């Protein structure tokens, strides 16, 4: 090949490269043009600044920088208008000290939803609070709807990410039993469905019992949480994981909640359990659901963990303005025997309303109750749950519901009774579209145990709980509220002696404390 031919080939390749580069530039420009469809960066910046000011005040967080990343389509709203979600990265700087673990401010979950992020989409929040000058890095979003006057911000619920659980493997004898059970399930006949229900029910109970007994055999510290998708289960699992990392064999087990957890504690099947404080009070003296079992005098507390506010929910366009207005109305009060059910009954009774005074009583729980409300089959839902509750976030983002405050008289009456209620305020923006603070009461989740738990285990558990687990980075909204400063708020059962000693290192007055009526020691400041 001659030098002239080589030169021609080189020139051709250079030309081809230039054409290719030009095409790439054109495609990039087109891509960028597509990404900027919808509101621009200044519109996103304005919305974020307005939301921060409304929720936390103008002197709390400065929006140091914001960069628009792109946008994508959303399903149209109920009115059929076009919607888009715009993603951004931002840096926020604290202008003053702020502790998101405080029970009277927005928590991490509400703050994250305000910015269109998940709990894991925000870096820089500290478990023990942030100081002026600290910076927070946000990977968030703002959703907009295109109306007659252009793009308008709208509230959209952003679901969190769940976790999976695993079960144990079996041995040869176990396989034989499993084969026999499979044969029973495969057996034909008119009663096949009922047969399947019975077998499944028995197997569920047997699996739970086997797991607990094996853990006891291995001398593991067993912690009872709650339903797989709840905060009780998440906190219990994080605690168990940290204890294992520190060299203490441990296991978190799931349950149906406070009533079952207290039964597991009483029978010695678990060492520690998360329970609602007013249900624990009933177990201690053997009343209500525990009347047939008698008092559980050795029930003791390790810590009060986080508040679970009572939510009074009505349709957005409802004329209901107070608890007293529920007389003659259709109300969902939660599952019978649950702590939420007991609290709903107590609230109604404090307002002078008996269940017989209601137009209809539904007993389905928050999620199903919200659906009844949406379908027009219920007028109100009363639920006790950590805030913000995901099901309620979704309904609030869709503009379907609103929360009612309790009157000061009702709050005083409930907190004076010594049943574990504490006064609490849900700050504005706890839920999407919530413009004003909501005054209510709350119970608290307790970490409970028996008096036989050794001091060494108490110290390990409380050290892991307060010093080693970063609940904020772990994405636990309820866990982010766990601090030593609130460890004695709402106690309704005595503190374990080793816990009294533990808190005495930091809070001298706690060494003199035992469980007193919550109203005597509960004010949030």
UniProtKB/TrEMBL annotation:
Determine the domain of life of the protein's source: Bacteria
Pfam families linked to this entry: NMT1_3
**Which Gene3D superfamilies does UniProt cross-reference here?**
Periplasmic binding protein-like II
InterPro entries of this UniProt entry? TRAP_TAXI
Q: Which NCBIfam families match?
A: TRAP_TAXI
Keywords for this protein = Membrane, Transmembrane, Transmembrane helix
* Entry's transmembrane regions: 12-33
User: What is this protein's record name?
Assistant: TAXI family TRAP transporter solute-binding subunit
């Amino acid at each position: 090949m001659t030098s002239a031919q080589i030169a021609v080939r080189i020139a051709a390749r250079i030309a081809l490269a230039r054409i290719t580069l030009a095409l790439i530039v054109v495609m990039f420009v087109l891509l960028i043009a597509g990404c900027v469809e919808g509101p621009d960066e200044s519109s996103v910046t304005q919305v974020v600044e307005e939301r921060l000011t409304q929720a936390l005040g103008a002197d709390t967080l400065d929006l140091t920088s914001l960069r628009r990343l792109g946008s994508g389509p959303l399903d149209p709203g109920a009115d059929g208008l076009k919607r888009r979600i715009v993603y951004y990265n931002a840096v926020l700087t604290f202008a003053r000290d702020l502790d998101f673990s405080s029970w009277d401010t927005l928590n991490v979950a509400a703050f994250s939803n305000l910015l269109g992020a998940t709990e894991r989409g925000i870096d820089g929040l500290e478990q023990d609070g942030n100081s002026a000058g600290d910076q927070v890095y946000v990977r968030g979003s703002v959703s907009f709807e295109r109306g007659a006057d252009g793009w308008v911000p709208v509230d959209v619920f952003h679901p969190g990410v769940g976790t999976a659980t695993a079960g144990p493997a079996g041995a040869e004898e176990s396989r034989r039993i499993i084969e026999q059970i499979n044969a029973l399930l495969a057996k034909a006949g008119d009663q096949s469905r009922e047969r399947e229900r019975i077998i499944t029910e028995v197997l569920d109970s047997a699996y739970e019992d086997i797991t607990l007994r094996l853990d006891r055999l291995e001398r593991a510290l067993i912690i009872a949480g709650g339903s797989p998708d709840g905060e009780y289960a998440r906190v219990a699992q994080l605690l168990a994981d940290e204890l294992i990392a520190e060299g203490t064999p441990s296991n978190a087990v799931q349950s149906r909640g406070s009533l079952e957890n207290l039964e597991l504690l009483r029978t010695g099947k678990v060492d520690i359990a998360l329970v609602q404080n007013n249900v624990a009070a009933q177990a201690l003296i053997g009343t209500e659901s525990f009347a047939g079992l008698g008092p559980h005098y050795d029930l003791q507390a390790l810590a009060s963990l986080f508040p679970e506010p009572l939510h009074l929910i009505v349709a957005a366009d409802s004329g209901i303005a107070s608890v007293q207005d529920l007389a003659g109305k259709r109300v969902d009060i939660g599952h019978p025997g649950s702590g939420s059910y007991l609290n709903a009954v107590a609230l109604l009774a404090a307002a002078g309303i008996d269940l017989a005074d209601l137009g209809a009583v539904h007993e389905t729980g928050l999620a199903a109750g919200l659906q009844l409300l949406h379908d027009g089959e219920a007028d109100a839902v009363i639920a006790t749950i950590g805030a913000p509750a995901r099901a309620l976030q979704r309904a609030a983002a869709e503009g379907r519901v609103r929360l009612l405050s309790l009157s000061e008289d009702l709050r005083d009456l409930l907190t004076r009774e010594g049943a574990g209620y504490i006064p609490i305020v849900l700050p504005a923006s706890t839920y999407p579209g919530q413009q004003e603070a909501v005054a209510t009461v709350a119970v608290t989740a307790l970490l409970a145990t028996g008096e036989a738990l050794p001091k060494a285990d108490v110290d390990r558990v409380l050290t892991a709980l307060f010093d080693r687990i970063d609940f904020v980075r772990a994405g636990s909204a309820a866990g982010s509220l766990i601090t030593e400063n609130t460890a004695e708020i709402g106690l309704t059962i005595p503190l374990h002696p080793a816990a009294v000693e533990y808190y005495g290192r930091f809070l001298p007055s706690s060494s003199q404390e035992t469980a007193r009526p919550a109203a005597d020691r509960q004010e949030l400041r």
